[in-house]
Amino acid sequence: MKSDRKVIIEKHKKFSQSALWRLQREYFDKEGINAWVNQVPFYITSNPFIAMCYAKIVLPFMLDWSKKNPEAKKHPFYVMELGTGSGRFSYYFVKSLLELMKAQDIQDIQFCYIMSDFTKHNIKYWESHPSLKPYVDQGLIDFALFDMETERPVTLINKNIRLSPDVLVNPLTVFANYIFDTVSHDAFTVHEGKLYELLFSLTTDEKNMENNRPVDMEKIEVDYHIHEIKTSSYYGNPHFDSILEDYKNKLVSTSFLFPMGSFNAIRFLKKLANDKLLILSTDKGYSTVESLDHLGHPAISFHGSFSMMVNFHAIGEYFKNSGGDAFLQTPRKGIRTSVFSSGFKLSDLTQTWHAIDEWVERFSPADYFALHSRMRDSYQEVTQLDIIASHLELARWDPHIYLKICNHLISLLESSDAETIDFIAHNMPRLAENYYFMPKTECVLFEIGVFFHAIKNYEQALKYYLSAHEFVGDQFGLFYNTALCQHHLDKNEDALVTFNKALVLDPESKETQEWITFIEKKLAGGGDEEKSPADRAEEEKPE
Ligand SMILES: C[S@@+](CC[C@H](N)C(=O)[O-])C[C@H]1O[C@@H](n2cnc3c(N)ncnc32)[C@H](O)[C@@H]1O
User: Domains (ranges, CATH) in the chain?
Assistant: First the structure.
């Protein structure tokens, strides 16, 4: 029997070598796509707005680069997403970029978007994803296994191309959302002008151990131990050592993280890409020396996996000190977006610089999320449909939001003006195009059907109900609503078949039985003067 005894998992470990990172990887590998089902937060970095902001920067970058380097148009621009996860962001980014290219009639720029992750389970999910398929078929999206903690060749799975300086003729654009916080860090303390390594000890209850390893990361307790660093070449790398030295001199009393896992990945990607990188990263983090001062030992936030605050300042210093550039968004509460370049200065690329100012520094993904969160927490209080419609527009008709508010939205239809309802109806195709299937989530196509059904546009309702079937399968509510629309469109033979399918799924449904009887009579040539079950009930409510 297991006792309440504490077990030491490890003692005085350099943070980047802690078992926590192995546990983190095991978590993501085991969970695959399920990590995003009510466990790891994703919305903040995987919504159509942030994807649009990135596209608004990457397109001018490709154009600026091609203008300065006329040969560039002969080669694709590769855009690689690290730690991609669900693929929701990837889909919205490629969609946004193509829309922008179409709107500006840009036909002579080639790009290939590489969705990468260290776990095969995520790649498997992307390979069968219906939203990604058209882009994969056109060669616009490819997949690659890439573990940021190891230097192994990176090969595009479909094109069978290995990334190398010969292939990456144009700069490699890298997206690192919510991943620099997930891979390994070192940790340090500065106090009275001295620099210390912060070493980690992990303990847990014996009950939380199985096969010699902890089961639940959240039940791990962390203790810290400091050890003075007397050398000025801790890493034996002048770039990293000079940042540490700078912190030792400038910081008063604090502990901070040093993103070594991210640095190793960046150095490897620099080698692959002839030292030419453009990196966009959105995460929680610190971007100034001042904000790194007077902090306690690093907090680890567990949410299925765990994450830390990213030291964007150190990443920025690294790029600036090695001939590149860094644009760190002025601090916002929550996430912030940073842009880094290697091999060229951002400020030398006029359109790119302007776009970064517009989409990172001004109304940014962080601002969008702050506004959205306020609305998300109080939409029930909003009784004007036009305000909800404006929020949906700001969110670029995001199904994730629509699914949260659709019941409320439907309840407001009756008291709303025709213009607003028309506006929403007009944008429903955009909402449908943004549907990115994730397991165990509601299907927005069904809910769009309910919207049209509620405004008595049965043709559109039927169209969306039929397209929802592929995702939700055989469901009573779907069949029942589909059959109602078929009946309203005088497709009574179809309606009968569909009501019967509904009845199989819920043989007790009185309404379904009444409808079947009513339609059978109608098809037999009788029952014209008889009221339909909908007329008998005062109004018809879709399920
Ligand atoms: C916190 S999630 C972020 C997912 C996505 N980028 C987002 O913004 O929602 C971290 C992702 O990184 C992946 N990951 C974890 N460790 C990694 C590593 N060492 N190399 C590459 N990917 C890793 C996980 O499988 C997971 O998909």
Answer: 1-40+186-257 (no CATH), 47-180+259-293+306-376 (3.40.50.150), 384-536 (1.25.40.10)
